[in-house]
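Q: What structure does this chain adopt?
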Amino acid sequence: MQLAQESSPLVDFQDVSFSYKGSKQEILRNVNVIFKSHSFYFLTGDSGMGKTSFMKLIYSGLLPTSGKIDVFGANTKDLNINTLPSFRQQIGIVQQDCELFEHLNIQENVALVLKLQGVEAKRANVYAEELLAWTGLGEYLKRFSKELSEGQKQRVAVARAVIRRPKLLLADEPTGNVDEAQSKRLIGLFKELVKMGTTVIIATHNRQLISANGYCEYRLKNGELRQYNSLRGTSSLTAQLMRKA
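A:
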């Protein structure tokens, strides 16, 4: 079943199936789903059900075994060495292992994203400092990843993913290693991004987080993706943004 929502499609799965080469297990089986722009989604499911694989399929880290995935109107199977970089520049990715550059301090890690897009170094560093301060890491700007806790690394990864205000944010367990106060702060940041036009998809096991926010939840189980609860708040927000556009 394909569920219609307000605003335009950003990610469109059409009869998508996926399994790893040599494996008989189907991670996805004939999945049809549309993720709309200006919206917030939770992706849930037990460990091993394929949440990380699902995220990778969206940013073309993996390709579907069958079916079609359109992201920003482009078929991910058609992306190549020339088009993939500009495609991924529109996506912010927060992975569980953070993947920070160990030879750069955390301010440099975050600012690098903007510098690679041609933003002047001083300006990029100022933006990085402001965003890291907002996440509670203002006193750690010159520290390196090996000096940080896992929760602190997670916040750096979030700052790096959102600093360029991407069209799409994919976050794999972004609150897994942070306390409740920081979790609320990060979710608040994600909500602000939605108001500015970003679509946010968060993979999580945190039922309390989902219940407290009430956005659309999709659950992966045995290769199927099903909507678990209805939207609350996102529809009115996207309608307001569409009227202002």
